[in-house]
Amino acid sequence: MITKQELDNLVSKYETEDFIKDDPIQFIHKYPQKEDAELAGFIASLFAYGNRKMFIAKLNNLFERADNKISDYIKAGDFSNLKGFEYRFSKDNDIIPIFETLNKLYFESKGLEELFEYGYKQDNDIYKMLKTVVDYFYSRAPKTAGQGFYHMIPNPENGGAMKRMNMFLRWMVRKPPVDLGIWTFIKPKDLLIPLDVHVARVSRNMGLLTRKSNDFKAVIELTSKLRELCPEDPVKYDFAMFAFGVELNKKKN
Questions:
Q1: Is 21 helix (H, G, I), strand (E, B) or coil?
Q2: How many CB atoms lie within 10 A of CB 82?
Q3: How far is it between the farthest Cα atoms of the chain?
Q4: Whether 132 contacts 119, CB under 8 Å
Q5: What is each CA distance from 145 to 78, 97, 139, in whole angstroms?
Q6: Is 160 strand, coil or helix?
Q7: What region does 77 belong to: left with phi over 0, alpha with psi -120 to 50, or beta?
Q8: 218 within 8 A of 211, measured Cβ to Cβ
Q9: Which of 31, 103, 136, 169 could in theory staple to 77 by disulfide, Cβ–Cβ 3.0 to 4.6 A?
């Protein structure tokens, strides 16, 4: 199994500002205002699957449609220029309802942070928080919303890893230079690892994960193992596993 020192060395090497330019986290760094940053981060996280270059290009197009003023765009409530906009499984009838729900959220409350915090403080439990957030969107989904809507906002009750939501939380909660650290109602020690197929494969190669399925139980197992290495900030090793995967690919090539 890889050692804590080896992991910490990889974190030091890769958790730098240079990481930002090729990662979807780049979008939150384009907005100095907190409300813009959290909205940009949430939206970017929903699209962050598949080929990285493709979804970053798609997100650039999306933010251009919003004139790169995402908070103003959401609050204005006119999403007619998203007609015809799609990405992989999600068509415009899946994407527009998400924006319409965000519009209602910011009209009715202080927005995403208040929604996530309300869910978390029910029982100081991330799973229940994610369920609260998902329920908010599902309860407002029109009948025209298709499977693409539910792919972008997956239900934790289905047992999936909830990778993109956990990634968004990492962005909001962990401290800079890469993450923003603008939400304080959750401590970094309580975050869950954003688990995708790459992190899962690398963590097994490292000897950190034994579960074969890439599901929520694997998220709990891996996060628990990482907490043994760094109780106060286990998710920092997301960078190490990314780096380890990069280095393995270089060796193969």
A1: helix
A2: 18
A3: 53
A4: yes
A5: 18, 7, 12
A6: strand
A7: left
A8: yes
A9: 103
At 90, is the secondary structure helix, strand, or coil? strand
Integer angstrom CA distances of residue 212 from 27, 163, 197, 216, 217: 33, 16, 11, 12, 10
Residue 219 in tokens: 């998220």
Domain enclosing residue 174, as ranges: 4-252
CB 172, CB 41: distance < 8 Å: yes
If we measure between CA atoms, which residue out of 226, 173, 249 comes closest to residue 218? Answer: 226
What's the CA gap between 48 and 198, in Å, rounded? 14
Q: What is the rounded distance in angstroms from the CA atom of residue 64 to the CA atom of residue 218?
A: 37
DSSP 3-state assignment of 212? coil
Q: Identify whether the C-beta of residue 38 lies closer than 8 Å to the C-beta of residue 172.
A: yes
Q: Show pLDDT as tens, one digit a residue, over the chain (253 residues).
A: 788 998 999 999 999 999 999 899 999 999 999 999 999 999 999 999 988 899 999 999 999 999 999 999 999 999 999 999 999 989 999 999 999 999 999 999 999 999 999 999 989 999 999 999 999 999 999 999 999 999 999 999 999 999 999 999 999 999 999 999 999 999 999 999 999 988 999 999 899 999 999 999 999 999 999 999 999 999 999 988 887 776 676 666 5
Q: Is 103 helix (H, G, I), strand (E, B) or coil?
A: helix
Close Cβ partners of 196 (under 8 Å, ≥ 6 residues apart):
49, 161, 163, 214
User: Going by C-beta distance under 8 Å and a sequence separation of 6 or more, which residues neighbour residue 37?
Assistant: 28, 29, 31, 180, 182
**Alpha-carbon radius of gyration of the chain:** 18
Q: What residues are paired with 90 via a beta bridge?
A: 87
